[in-house]
């Protein structure tokens, strides 16, 4: 049986080396491009649809989620993620990818126990954390508002 230090040395030796500067640059650029596409979608909606600012923001979010899900479904988003790393995860399209990928992967296990049960495996804890955090912040905001 090998010790912890020996195992760590073996892992470091077997792990591929990464060029961190290149990886960070790619993540920054791709994340920025995704955000620029979102801004362009918002600008087009603002120009051509008679909606208020909140409706435009909601429609833009829905459109970006749809595009992320569509690109995941046709296999393009995974290729973007391979080259961009975290740059493809951070924007709203990464959320769509984290929902659609497990749904596609476990579709063969059936709709209920495969696709639907596993769909939120990655995004579920993030959603729960966000909801719990917003409740705590909302309670603090309410208590501070009542105290003032």
* Percent of sequence in beta strands: under 5%
Q: Tally the beta strands.
A: 0
Unreliable spans = none
Order of helices and strands: HHHHHHH
Q: From the alpha-carbon coordinates, what is the Rg to the nearest angstrom?
A: 20 Å
| Shape, principal axes of CA atoms | extended
Could you characterize the architecture of this molecule?
The protein is mainly alpha-helical and 148 residues long. The chain has a domain of 88 residues. Helix content is 79%, strand content 0%. The chain has 7 helices and no strands. Helix 2 crosses helix 3, helix 3 packs parallel to helix 5 and helix 5 packs antiparallel against helix 6. The longest helix is centred in the N-terminal third of the chain and has 29 residues. It is extended, with a radius of gyration of 20 Å. It starts with a helix and ends with a helix.
